[in-house]
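Final report, section 2: Outcomes. Of the targets proposed, Parvulin-like PPIase is the one most frequently requested by collaborating groups, and we therefore present its record in full.
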Amino acid sequence: MMKTICAGIASAALVAAPLVPAAAQTVAVPTADNPFGIPDDIQILGKENPDTRTATAVVNGYVITGTDIDQRVALVTSASETEVSDQELERLRVQVLRNLIDETLKIQASQALEMPVSQGEVEQTYAQLATQNFGQEPEKMAEYLISIGSSPAALKRQIEGEIAWENLLRRNIMPFVNVSAEEVNDVLERLEEARGQDEYRVGEIYLSATQENRAAVLQNAQRIMEQLRQGGSFVAYARQFSEATTAVVGGDLGWIRLGQLPPALDAQLQQMQAGQLNGPIEIPGGFSIIYLINKRKVAMADPADALLSLKQIAISFAPDVTQEAAEAKVNQFADFVNNLRSCADAETARDVLGATVVSNDQIRAANLPEQLRAIILNMQIGQTTPPFGSPQEGVRVLMLCGRDDPEQIGGPNFDEIMDQIEQERINKRAQRYLRDLRNDAYIEYN
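The predicted structure is given below as tokens.
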């Protein structure tokens, strides 16, 4: 837990709180479950909610302003498709303040070890992000950030924190993490035994919790989950809130198998479909929100990598078409499609229905919407999907005319397994390292 050095404020709160007679409190004896010996019937002297404070802070002399928080909050909320309520926004500000404190501690620790992040490194990463998101016009990213209420400086500060943390881990954690060849070979043997079983590509937002702050962390995880369900970007929320080292890559854990995650997460993954969210799930040390990105068989070819040859048959409707007329036309279209026997027959749709027919023989299954992909991968050559669309956008079907399945794969190699084990151990040590930075910090809330 972070130490809050603000004795004056604490004293004032105690003086302001009336000390009225109260029933005698139960005397609690320290135990393993209650190491501080806190009684169940405590009397609060002052404000009951420690998060109800002005959302600014001074971290070892560095001032985090309200503007810093507003601009970072804008980075998170801009990815949400729904409007964030005032109440949720205030809660989000509290969490963002915590993140900014951690970020500042990372930057300060890097500077203290005489390994500060150079401005050139920050600018290079910023330019890469701008090019990825805005192509040939990277300068538009600055305009976009300002338009959402953030700024280039806010994003660059976040980039500096991420690079500083990577540098710290590279110096203080990674050299002391060792993985033996025997450990890797054991994993490879188990992997071969599991060939053909399911494996999952998972995104995770991890929030650490202790017995003392469990309720508050759970409430925060539930709020994040609510925002994600309303359209918030998982990658954006993972980058801002996840305490795992995978936060810098949007929480992506890569491909994993059952048994590599805590049992509670394994149990949920087995029931999930690609594209689903689940959480918060309590695991040792905190809570996780997981997102199933994709699913495949261990050491087997991924069906989503298949190259498909498809024909799209589409019909359009007049702008003033009635509901009855539209339904009749859709029924006629469905009857025609059901009688098709080959891809060559699809071309007759132009003359019979006035439909448009478009062919493409280089479509990767993974690039199709999940719902369509699941249907098409279970189809035989010459079969069509059910009609989909609307009178406004047109109604269409896809016919499968060919399929080139990917070659069998050999699974992860020795180096990939070793890297995965190393990352797991680095992640655990990194959490302890950040906790130590918080414990040693001088933080004053304004």
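The longest helix spans residues 86-112.
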